[in-house]
Specification:
Blueprint lengths: L2 H16 L1 E4 L10 E5 L6 H8 L4 E6 L7 H13 L2 E4 L8 H12 L3 E4 L11 E2 L4 H9 L2 E8 L1 H4 L12 E5 L15 H19 L3 E2 L3 H13 L1
Parallel strand pairs: 1-8, 2-5, 2-7, 3-4, 3-5, 6-9
Antiparallel strand pairs: 7-8
Helix pairs in contact: 1-2, 5-7
Length: about 230
Amino acid sequence: MLYWFFVKLLGPLARTWFGPTVEGAGNIPKDGAVIIASNHLAVIDDALLPITCPRMIHFMGKAEYFNGKGFKGRFKKWWFSSVGVFPVDRSGGSKSLGAMETARSILEHGHIFGIHPEGTRSPDGRLYRGHTGVARLAFETGTTVVPAAIIGTRELQEPGRVFPHRGRTKVIFGKPIPVPYTPVNSLTHEEVRNLTDRIMQEIQEMSGQRYVDVYAQVIKAHQAKKELD
């Protein structure tokens, strides 16, 4: 895996371009399984977190990144696999179970798994309702969650922009949230929802974003419908 090669090679360039400041890096446990749950404002978020985190982060990536044809498709698959990204079918249901099993395996081997509980980039810069997958995974593996806030990336890379502007960003790693191991058949919806909401509250307090208690996908679907009308 070429994760650290790319972090060391491209990290200095990314730091110069994105100008990140980091707070709370000491909140990330030095070893053992950890879930880093952050807001999601721009594509470059998943470059910013690795260059500011002292440990390797494994992420999910859209299945489309791994299914392309020709040289470009093969290159994208190689690139994402090399930097610790694994595919997820975002249509949900049983099609997403394989990705969650991979995430569970990563945690069981004592590594860091990074996830955006909103499930997609914010359509307008606000913070949206979190999906419960992160909380369920934390309970089922007994893994500590470190909430994280990314600030400033939307200003550098507006929706639709491929190459980001140069500017300043910030990453804040919050205080760890210990989560007790809880067997699946003992988990309640209330427990899962409460932990998810607590994580989102921590992110909101650090990021300063306005919180919207609606899933971001609902807003995006509404926007897409308006464009078609």
